[in-house]
Amino acid sequence: MSFFIKKLTVIGLGLIGGSLARALKERDKVGEVVGVNRSLSSLEKGMSLGVIDTFTTDLVAGVRGANMVLVATPVRAIVPVIRAAAPGLMPGAIVTDAGSVKGRIVAECEAAMPKGVHFVGGHPIAGTEHSGVEASFATLFEGSRTILTPTEQTAKDALELVTIVWEAVGSRVETMDPKHHDRVLAATSHLPHLMAYNIVKTLSDLENDIQSEVFRFAASGFRDFTRIASSDPTMWRDICLENRDSILEMITRFRGDLDDLHAMVAAGHGEALHEIFAQSRATRDRVVKGDKGGKP
Q: Quick one: how far is CA 6 from the chain centroid?
């Protein structure tokens, strides 16, 4: 299905919003792109890079006349931003988001839509450890997955357009119930990020003489595993607060497995340790080999 967005407004001009704008511009799928941020420096940087065509810090003015609005702010700002912008939304406009938590956000954003305006919950599973519009690039979504979280209130035409927008920039789109999404992402994304942050904290809390040796001899495995600990702290603080119940569930499960591992090491159960390591390696290899359409 061919499409063209006459006017796209990106609220929260950073890695995700900037990359979508770049990708659509590169494919001649969008006319005017408006950036809306609290930070003027980010907006000015977006203009200088050609990511956006104009900008404002006024939410209502920024969405006025927009055919599509992407909200790519930290998750705890999504609902307040959409409520504040609502008076400027025109009938027929489609609002979507890029937050990695969906349950409460989808319900409250749907309730905030003016008559004739449609909301589609979205979560592009793509990114890097870098943030800001200067980190954006047009190929970010190629080979990625995007989860859309429609409900009974979601307009079919709105869902279809948001789907083809993400597909047009190289992402494979899947749909999922909002609450189920939050449990899945707590396990596959939120828990690994918390683990990476906590491993770095554990090492940095060691006594100074040991710490210097630990980091001086850190191998590539340490850098690979902890790369995501360079992600935006504000974003991850908000994710933890917004998806608290599902994250606590996954931490509890992980803590139980870690306690088991601790017991095996303490008891010197070599066979049991080997079985866990072999099973984990086989699982990881199977998942990576079979994953044809998504970035981690």
A: 25
